[in-house]
From TrEMBL:
<feature type="region of interest" description="Disordered">
    <location>
        <begin position="1"/>
        <end position="22"/>
    </location>
</feature>
<dbReference type="InterPro" id="IPR010982">
    <property type="entry name" value="Lambda_DNA-bd_dom_sf"/>
</dbReference>
<dbReference type="GO" id="GO:0003677">
    <property type="term" value="F:DNA binding"/>
</dbReference>
<protein>
    <recommendedName>
        <fullName>Helix-turn-helix protein</fullName>
    </recommendedName>
</protein>
């Protein structure tokens, strides 16, 4: 069964991605994930984080740029590699 097409996170957010909040709740969840991911990566290289997570570095770059929706396996691998909680929807649900 083919996937349902949907806009990319970057398409649902104002410029510059990911620095400006989005009114679209799903896009906002993705934006907040990217902000946490960017913060947790810190001074490390994307390649080193991707390698530790068992991911292709382009996957991580595409997520950071809002050009991909991360799947649960990607989120889990990044959380384990960074020893950090990256995904939550609490702030979006509470609004």
């Amino acid at each position: 069964m083919p996937r349902t097409e949907r806009a990319l996170p970057v398409d649902g957010a104002p410029d510059p991605w990911p620095d400006v909040p989005s009114e679209d709740r799903l896009t906002e969840i993705a934006r907040q994930f990217v902000l946490r991911l960017r913060d947790e990566i810190g001074d490390r290289s994307v390649r080193s984080v991707a390698a530790e997570a068992g991911l292709n570095h382009m996957t991580v770059l595409n997520v950071l740029a809002g050009r991909a929706w991360p799947d649960l396996a990607t989120i889990g691998r990044l959380e384990l590699a960074l020893n950090a909680d990256l995904y939550t929807s609490h702030s979006v649900r509470d609004n």
